[in-house]
Amino acid sequence: MDRQLISLVAHADHPIAAPVSQASLDRLLTRARLRAGARVLDLGCGQAAWTLRALELHPDVTADGVDISAEALASAAREAEARGLRGRIRLHERPAAGFTPAEPYDLVLCVGAVHAFGGLGPALEAVRGLLRPDGLALVGDGFWDEQPTARALARLGAAPEEYADLPGTVRAVEDAGFRVVYGHTSERAEWDEYEWSWTGSLTRWALDNPGPDGEAALTAALEHRDMWLDGYRGILGFVTFLLRRTG
């Protein structure tokens, strides 16, 4: 069972695909205050939950979603059709890194997908190059909410320098040519809802699909649950910034 299918199944009940509640997502997208005719780009869009909601909140806006998962994009297309948004979104099956549109965007999203660029710094550089001079970005990534223990690092397979603390993360995005105009730091309840949904959806699918794929899905769910509960819970935070391009 390939990694993309595992991710699709795991996010079935939480398509936002980040430790962010629906209310928090709406607040972030509303703060963008997109003008009529604005263009939105979602890098690593998955099932395009963020983009589709942006289109609902901002009439007369169009969007592009980019992802490498054909299954996730097919799910996004079905959801767009069901919500009457299919004519306002274009979906592209390709890597987010290296996506080269003909025109810049008013809003670029990269939430939980900076790994597609090799980390936060390269992702911010790419996002900045895709924005209009007065453009905005929504970028979400992890940070150390507490000093990571050796056990948490081992569980995550991470080095201490993989993330900064929250002040360091703010400095990193502003050093990359942005100013933070709003931010949302995910609460413990949002993390728990996301992780229980991720592991629970995958476990339920595994029980309904006995066989090699079901066994692989269950193994992935239990390993992830152990990594969270006995590793990074309360240590790894998640922050989503609304950023204004400078310079």
UniProtKB/TrEMBL annotation:
It comes from the Bacteria. Residues 41-136 form the Methyltransferase type domain. The keyword Transferase applies. SUPFAM superfamilies: S-adenosyl-L-methionine-dependent methyltransferases. Pfam families: Methyltransf_12. The keyword Transferase applies. GO terms for biological process: methylation. One of its GO terms (molecular function) is methyltransferase activity. Keywords: Methyltransferase, Transferase. PANTHER family: CYCLOPROPANE-FATTY-ACYL-PHOSPHOLIPID SYNTHASE, FATTY ACID C-METHYL TRANSFERASE. This is SAM-dependent methyltransferase. It comes from Planobispora takensis.
